[in-house]
Design a protein that fits this description.
The protein is mainly β and 184 residues long. The chain is built from two helices and 14 strands. It comes from Noccaea caerulescens.
Length: 184
């Protein structure tokens, strides 16, 4: 990527656009995983330094209340807390770490021992969206509200054939027919 301002960087994730910046993970100098921001207005790239203790090896970048959020890893039925890093200031590379203690009895009764992957944050209500590692019928998506410390499972009707043959996939902020959703 000659002339981009960052030598030898190779994107390794999809980008997310927040307030005129496209953020994505990339390998920088062929060995270091980093977050890169492309400022659309200025047409300039810059590396965003990760916070100390932030592991980018399995990170998901999200828009959290208009700021870049980074969730690392996944959560199984034994998960006890949830961490979301939020970029408070892109110029000074200042991050805050939000830790939510999960409601364990509710979590275990809804999730069991399933491994859930962090998909993103649903716009409007700031609920964390989680997706099971293995998708089976009934087709379910999980939502965790960090502020209210509540957890719910939503079953989506009419997706059995797609899940059985394709394994399912998850895209946020797209609703075709809300009547097909059933809250459990």
């Amino acid at each position: 990527m000659i002339g981009c301002g960052i030598p030898d960087h190779y994107p390794n994730s999809d980008g997310i656009c927040i307030n005129g910046g496209v953020y994505y993970e990339a390998w920088v100098n062929s060995s270091v995983s980093a977050i890169v921001c492309f400022d659309v207005r200025l047409e300039k790239y810059r590396v965003i330094n990760a916070a100390e203790g932030m592991d980018l090896s399995r990170a998901t970048l999200v828009n959290y209340k208009g700021k870049l959020g980074v969730r690392t890893g996944n959560c199984t039925g034994n998960c006890r807390h949830y961490e979301l890093w939020v970029l408070e200031d892109a110029e000074t590379h200042e991050w805050s770490k939000n830790v939510s203690v999960l409601p364990v009895p509710l979590w275990k009764s809804v999730v069991g021992n399933a491994t859930l992957y962090f998909v993103g944050v649903a716009g409007g209500n700031d609920e964390v969206v989680l997706w099971p590692q293995r998708v089976y019928a009934p087709f379910c998506v999980y939502y965790y509200n960090m502020e209210r410390n509540t957890f719910r499972r939503v079953e989506i009707k009419g997706m059995d054939a797609a899940v059985r043959y394709y394994g399912g996939c998850m895209t946020l902020d797209y609703v075709e027919d809300v009547k097909l959703m059933k809250y459990v």
